């Protein structure tokens, strides 16, 4: 299958900002030269091909996430997050400023993956 991915240069990184299988949409909505064609059998293969091409998916690139996003990613409440931190069962947050704390996205996704052990319920 042929995927068309929109690639933009943002803060020095080549980021994937869109994906479609419709060439006409890519050409009309994104403009010529603003997309690349990648052949892949599935979205999983598309990610692998994109990594080989040196592209970064903004949803998976390393960044800090604040508490509301942590709660959304994990499905646990604020109280449970802080209880798990206290017990050493959840990644500790980083102090970014005197009033702002956040977590590394990679640490949260690793925690989620460790909880599921690759098994869907």
From TrEMBL:
InterPro entries: AlpA, DNA-bd_dom_put_sf, Prophage_regulatory_activator. It comes from the Bacteria. SUPFAM superfamilies: Putative DNA-binding domain. It comes from Thiothrix subterranea. Signal peptide: none annotated. The lineage of its organism: Bacteria, Pseudomonadati, Pseudomonadota, Gammaproteobacteria, Thiotrichales. This is AlpA family transcriptional regulator.
């Amino acid at each position: 299958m042929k995927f068309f991915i929109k690639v933009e240069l943002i803060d020095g990184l080549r980021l994937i900002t869109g994906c479609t299988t419709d060439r006409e949409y890519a050409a009309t909505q994104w403009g010529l030269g603003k997309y690349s064609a990648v052949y892949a059998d599935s979205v999983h293969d598309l990610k692998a091909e994109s990594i080989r091409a040196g592209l970064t998916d903004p949803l998976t690139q390393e960044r800090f996430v604040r508490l509301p996003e942590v709660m959304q990613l994990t499905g646990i409440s604020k109280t449970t997050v802080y209880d798990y931190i206290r017990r050493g069962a959840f990644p500790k947050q980083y102090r970014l400023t005197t009033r702002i704390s956040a977590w590394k996205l990679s640490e949260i996704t690793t925690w989620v993956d460790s909880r599921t052990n690759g098994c869907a319920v």
